[in-house]
Amino acid sequence: MYLDPRPSGGAWPNNEPPPTAIQSEMLLLSALIRHGSAARALLPRIAAQQFADPLHGRIFEALTMDRPVDQIADLATLTAEFGSSGVLNDIGGAAYLVQLDGLGGPFDVVPDRAGAITDSWLRRQLLDLGEAVAGLAANQPGILNGAETLDLAEKRIADLRAAVGAPP
After folding, report:
1. pTM of the model
2. In the chain, N or C terminus with fewer CB closer than 10 Å?
3. What pLDDT is recorded for position 99?
């Protein structure tokens, strides 16, 4: 049995909003738009699904995908790609890409901003895991015993460690 994360939009402890790093997401995207390969060279291990805003994740994927040597992922390229694929409006239109570019994120912020994004994602995952474990421990008698629930929790924590490159 896999511990499925709770669907987004669910209640968090004390009805607090989930941990996010939206400003970091925007600055990271700005740095990638403005500085391309120089910013990508500083990019630690991070995945699009770690972004709290799924639209930022889509933009991140477009900025970091492999491209021919003669093609860079700049503002014009992104606008054209998102426009031709019909998703430009989904990401806030060309105006949002211009807004991100206008933030002027320097390329040296990339490691710190990526770290903040990964940290907030990890915190959301841990909250989901805690809720899932609590639900299994309290509401599923007879399906899993305590040791099996512990094994599942430890497996999920190991998966999270691997996802962020943390030592065991």
Report:
1. 0.82
2. C
3. 94
